[in-house]
Every structure is written in structure tokens, then in C-alpha cells.
């Protein structure tokens, strides 16, 4: 896996190798082809020992001399060629930007317009990532970014011409915006914290940031600001690799559970980079149905579970990576029985700072769902 | 309008005055009431001289002794009381947090649960804002934040216990995250830039940031990251107040136009704070249909306009604040004729850095839509 300062050269070499193999096969009069890991549902497995969704051993061949694959083969080669160029130029773009480059021209002399929809190029980027064993971020393709962080940590960012050190304990009300790529040309140093606290909603992040929660408790406070992006998931993984426990505080509803499980076990769509972005060590702080017994004021603060919440709870009970935890089975059965949901914002009811006390107590008592 | 360091005290005084009026009326045995500016459609006007959507002179009375209004009156007083508390505590929350505080308890001794949906409290917050002549941010209520900035400027942020100075030219790939409230306890100093460039999409912001566009051109580079929040619109207004021209670079489609016009003239929903958040001086850089003639490669990069784009273009031709500009009438008629749209990402087609050249040329030639 290409990472760090030498990433560009390493990834460039991989693309050159990819191209040389194709040229070699043409020279020896064989049909040019390459292989990639199968990303179909049947090859997505839950690794119960490691605790995340990943791909099985099935590979697939992309063959130029195959009427059904010729166009896609050409398109993938064009994508590889564009990414090689981006790496040489030391410039990044989005997958939308890549799509328009492909629409403009396939390469030096080829003015063929073989891309009409971005839906065509997206799966081929994944083919290339899986085939080369790199992430799109290594190919200078920026994924959507979202997420904010505060805590005792420094970031050394060599993106562009500058080398900028940012102290993420000095970001005021704004916090530090988590970038698309947290691997290449970026370093996280002086991480002086006891744990990572992830809170689903930005409004709750702001509340806790104002209380100086991360300072008092010496934690790294992150909000994915909704569903966690690739970059935010990767950063959480990297912080866990530094030995920090990861606690997630979300709504007790379909969306909150989904965000948690995506952080913990990865997701079906990103199973091909599961080991890079899943944090199986993560624990769920709440909000949980058993909070209703402990914090009795919550009883008047519940909302009616929606159909989506109910359906999601039923589905989750079917997933082996969830139903192997009896605590989650219990929690989800309570939801199905009570038909209620609880939001994390609720914990501001008694007083605005109560939300921090709730988290403190949960962590002190190690009162989590797995 | 309460702003700056004394904001808390000023706003608190306004709330006290609001309460004292009610108490006074009870004492003299009159029905307690307060008045607010009418926010109904019939009172929303386009101020053609100033160039933004605002409220007319119609006021509405909220009367306690009116069966239809009693509950809402009580609710508004409860909201005022909560905000007064937040100001005294020097703590902020979201309108969701406020809703849960109201659900928990209306005040010291009142355990009545008169709020069942947040939809009930939201319009009453606006009643209170309009009645007191403050923004919700002055009431320590955080609105959703989104948006990122880079440029030669410093921010002095006194939120919480610290007083933090951030140099927004040293934010690397992340940029500075625009907060919810850009008025209270925050200052923008050393703004050394020639203009403000707003780009709709974060991916384009990242592209231009990587190119050092804001550094080379000495501009403040902002992305609202989609629709501009209250905070981002207010910040653009404040930068325009410092004498900087504001140029907006968006997609040439329904959403891109909408984002532009919201920045320029404000919106119907926020007409009650129109003067604070609209920037009528803003100009539209593109992407425009006439770009198709100038940059001929764009012809193969167009997308088919969707039904939403067509419907929006038709609606826009009806708005007096748009159809008074003949250039916009021409542009929208072209859209309706060609049934095409163009995305800003397209300008990366020839090479990734072309997008900066396009903007440079547009600004050099002052080639804008009004």
C-alpha cells in the first residue's frame, strides 16, 4: 500500500507495471488482460476474527478480447493513464473532475468520447484500486470530505507547496476540517490523548467543544457530521492504530446505528478497503434503550420510531456481525418492542452541559454496547 | 442589532424588556401581548433599490387572551426564557437542543410538556428574532454550519474560554471551517485581499486551493459546500462590507443558480434578516451558456438539462429580482432553448489547472452576469 512521502512514486510505478503487462501481452500476441478482486456481493465476507467486512479470494479477469468487456477495458486503461498524469503533475481532482477529463480526451491523440455518464467511470476506478492494491486517494483522486476534529494533536500537511503544521487544540469554534486523504503527504504527530470520541452530529460536537470537553477529558473529539466519509473513517482507524480506544456517541435510531456500524465493521460498498477503514475496536456509548431506565427523565423525551427505524432494527438482527453480540440483540429487540427512538440531543434536556456528564459517566463505567 | 463583545448583555436586556412588558400588562390588567413583523408571503417584498428580499411594514400581534394564540404565546415566552438562560450561562445550543430543553421543562417550576414537535418551536424562534430585532445567533442558538475559507485574513475567536487567532492563509488542504455565528465574539482582521471568490462545490475549492489560486490572485476563496448557510451568507456580506467585490462561480443549472441568487438577494425564508445576509453586489462568473461559444470544447461536455433545471429556469424568468436583468433573461432563454446544462467541474477537462485560468480571464474581462 502506497503511503507517506514516497507514495506518488510507488503508485506511479504500479500504474507503469499495469501498463507494461498489457503491452507485454500484446507483444507476445496474447489478448491483453488484467485481474482485479471481485467486488460482487458473493465475494463480500465478514471476517469474524478481524471483525470487519472484506473481500474473499475470488478474482475477476478483465479481458480486451471479449466483446462484453472491450469498452470497459479501454475505459479502465484511460483512467489509469489519467491518474498517472495527475500523479506526475502532483495535482488532485475529484472523480467528477476525472470523468470530465475522460470526456474531453482519452489521451494524447485520442479524441474518442467513450464516457457518457459518471456511473460508467466510478466502478472502473474501484477495479483499478483493487487491481493495483491502492486506494483512490493514492491515485490523486479526492473523495468527498466531511468531518471535524479537535484535540491535543498536531497535523503536518505538505499538500501543495507549503508544509503547514496545525495544532488541532487551537482551532476555536471551527475545529479542524478532516481532509479527503489522511495518508499521503500528511502526518499526525504529538497525539496526546486518552481516547477518541466520535459524535454523530456537528451540533453536539459544537456543544462539547464549547464545554472544552476534549480539553478536560483529554480526548480527540471528532464529528463525522453525519455518515463518516472515507477520510474520516480512515483517520479514526489511524488513531486506533496509535492505541487510542474509540467511543462512538450517536442517535439511537436507524441512522445512528448505521453510522456506528460503518465505522466499526466498514460497509459493503467499501469492503474492498475494509482493513483500511474499519475500526472493530470501536464501542457504542449510546443513546441506548437501557438509558431509559437509568436516566428516567428520558422517558418523556422519546420519539416514536419511524418505519425506517423499525425496518433497520429488523435487518440488523439478521446481520451476523451484529447478532453475534448479545447486547445488540437485546438492544434491538427493545427497540422493536417499545417502538421508540432517542436522539443524542435529548441529553441536553436537564441542562446544556449534561451531555458531557452523560458521556463521562458512560466512559468511567465502561458502559458500552460492543 | 446586538453584535460584538457586548452582544450578550444587549440581547439579555432585550429579553428582559420583552418580559417586563408582559408583566406590566398583567399588572395593569390588560391582556399580555407582543408584536412581531409579519413573515407571511404577502409581507415579503423585493427592495429593488437595495436589491434584496426583505419584510414589508406589516406587523402581527401575539395575544395571550386569544384562544388560537394562547399556547403559542406561552411557548414563545418559554423560548425567550430559555435563551435568556443560555445567554447568562454563556453556552450555545442548536434549535434541536432548545427543543429538548423545552420538552424537559418549561422553566423552574413548570413541568408541563407543551412541545411535541420541533416544527412547533422553529417559527416561534423566528417570531422572537423578529420581535426583538436580533438574529437567533444572538440568542446563543447555533444554526447549521457548513462552508470553508482560505485567504489572507485573520480570525480572532473568543468562543469559550480561549482567545484564538487563526491565520486563514495557513490552513493547508483543510481550509478554515466557517462557524455558525460570524458576529458574536469573533472578529475578522487583516483582510488583505482584492476580492472574494465563492465556488459552489467543495471539490472545486480543493482544486483551486491546491493550485494556490487564492494566494496567486490574492482573493478570499470560499466554498459554501452546496447551499450557503446563514453563517456563510453573513460572512460574505461582512466581507463585501469591507469593500471586497464578490464573484460567484457555480454550476450552470437549477441548483447553481439557486445558490447564487440566495447569496445575492437572500431568500424568502430568511427575508426577515435579508439586510444581514444578502450581498446584492455579487456577480455570477459562470458557468453560462455563452461559455459554449467562447470555449468550444465545452460543446461535447454539456449534460442534458433535467426537468428540475427547465422548471427552475421558467420560474426564475418570473421573479422580478431576476427578470429585471436582461442578461439573465437571455441566459435562461438559452437554457430553455438548448435544454442543456454545464457543470463547473467541466472546466477541468483540458487540464486540471484550466479552471483557474477560466476564472482569471472572466475576472480580468469583468465578464459576469449581474
3D architecture notes:
The structure is a homodimer of 370-residue chains. The first copy, chain A, has helices at residues 7-27, 70-89, 95-104, 118-132, 202-210, 213-217, 230-241, 254-265, 274-277, 291-294, 307-316, 320-323, 326-338, 354-364, and strands spanning 33-37, 44-47, 52-55, 59-63, 93-94, 141-142, 148-150, 154-157, 164-167, 176-177, 186-189, 195-199, 219-223, 246-249, 283-286, 303-304, 340-341. Chain A is of the alpha/beta class. The first copy, chain A, has 2 domains: 7-142, Orthogonal Bundle (Arc Repressor Mutant, subunit A); 148-364, Dna Topoisomerase Vi A Subunit, Chain: A, domain 2 (3-Layer(aba) Sandwich). In chain A, strands 10-7-13-12-14-15 form a 6-stranded mixed sheet. Chain A has a 3-stranded antiparallel sheet with strand order 9-8-11, with no helix packed on it. Chains A and B meet through strand 5, helix 3, strand 10 and helix 5 of A and strand 5, helix 3, strand 10 and helix 5 of B.
Amino acid at each position: 500500500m502506497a503511503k507517506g512521502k514516497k507514495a506518488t512514486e510507488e503508485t506511479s510505478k504500479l500504474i507503469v507495471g499495469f501498463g507494461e503487462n498489457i503491452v507485454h501481452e500484446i507483444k507476445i500476441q496474447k489478448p491483453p488482460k488484467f485481474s482485479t478482486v471481485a467486488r460482487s456481493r458473493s465475494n463480500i465476507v465478514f471476517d469474524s476474527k478481524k471483525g470487519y467486512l472484506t473481500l474473499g479470494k475470488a478474482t475477476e479477469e478483465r479481458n480486451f478480447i471479449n466483446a462484453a468487456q472491450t469498452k470497459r477495458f479501454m475505459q479502465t486503461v484511460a483512467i489509469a493513464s489519467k491518474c498517472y498524469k495527475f500523479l506526475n503533475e502532483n495535482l488532485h481532482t475529484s472523480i467528477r473532475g476525472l470523468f470530465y477529463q475522460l470526456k474531453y480526451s482519452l489521451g494524447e491523440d485520442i479524441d474518442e468520447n467513450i464516457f457518457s455518464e459518471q456511473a460508467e467511470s466510478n466502478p472502473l476506478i474501484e477495479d483499478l484500486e483493487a487491481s493495483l492494491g491502492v486506494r483512490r486517494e493514492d491515485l490523486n483522486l479526492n473523495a468527498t470530505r466531511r468531518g471535524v476534529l479537535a484535540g491535543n494533536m498536531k497535523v503536518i500537511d505538505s499538500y501543495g507547496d507549503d508544509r503547514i503544521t496545525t495544532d488541532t487544540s487551537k482551532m476555536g469554534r471551527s475545529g479542524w476540517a478532516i481532509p479527503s486523504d489522511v495518508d499521503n503527504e500528511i502526518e499526525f504527530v504529538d497525539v496526546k490523548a486518552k481516547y477518541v470520541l466520535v459524535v454523530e452530529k456537528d451540533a453536539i460536537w459544537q456543544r462539547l467543544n464549547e464545554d472544552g470537553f476534549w480539553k478536560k477529558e483529554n480526548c480527540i473529539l471528532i464529528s463525522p457530521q453525519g455518515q463518516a466519509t472515507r477520510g474520516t473513517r480512515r483517520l479514526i482507524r489511524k488513531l486506533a492504530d496509535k492505541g487510542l480506544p474509540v467511543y462512538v456517541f450517536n442517535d439511537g435510531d436507524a441512522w445512528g446505528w448505521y453510522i456506528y456500524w460503518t465505522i466499526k465493521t466498514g460497509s459493503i460498498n467499501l469492503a474492498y478497503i475494509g482493513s483500511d477503514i474499519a475500526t472493530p475496536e470501536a464501542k457504542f456509548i449510546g443513546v441506548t434503550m437501557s438509558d431509559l431506565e437509568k436516566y428516567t427523565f428520558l422517558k418523556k423525551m422519546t420519539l416514536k420510531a419511524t418505519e425506517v427505524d423499525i425496518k433497520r432494527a429488523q435487518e440488523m438482527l439478521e446481520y451476523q456481525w451484529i447478532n453475534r453480540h448479545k447486547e445488540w440483540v437485546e438492544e434491538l429487540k427493545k427497540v422493536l418492542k417499545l417502538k421508540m427512538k432517542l436522539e443524542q440531543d435529548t441529553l441536553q434536556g436537564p441542562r446544556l452541559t449534561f451531555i458531557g456528564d452523560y458521556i463521562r459517566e458512560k466512559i468511567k463505567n465502561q458502559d458500552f454496547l460492543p
